[in-house]
Amino acid sequence: MDENQISNLIIGCAIEVHRVLGPGLLESAYETCLTYELREKGLTAQQQIPVPVIYKEVKLEHGYRMDLLVEGRVVVEIKSVDFISDIHEAQLLTYLKLADHRLGLILNFNTQMLKNGIKRLVNRL
User: Fold this and answer.
1) pLDDT tens digits for 44-89?
2) For 3-122, which CATH class?
3) What are the residue ranges spanned by the domains of the chain?
């Protein structure tokens, strides 16, 4: 399965979670439910993956955490905010670069229709 196929499955699962739960919950609730849906589809979904920051020769182990890594290839950042801002996009791009992944999704569950809360970003390795 390529990254586009994986991202399509992720979006389908996210739409199901949003359909059942609706907007207004904490990000952690959406993360847990989305992980459940992804695993039910037979996908590997890891939660809260540490992303170390390397500064010159210093490796900072407690840098950041990606919300989800699906199939070891697609990074998913879950939000429950009024709107996706530039800083959210910068955060995801940073995770993609630091972890050497190509494709990422921001899923903002705080929308009436989830399709309006999806942002797809590509790291041009």
Assistant:
1) 999 999 888 888 888 887 768 899 999 999 999 999 999 999 999 9
2) alpha beta
3) 3-122
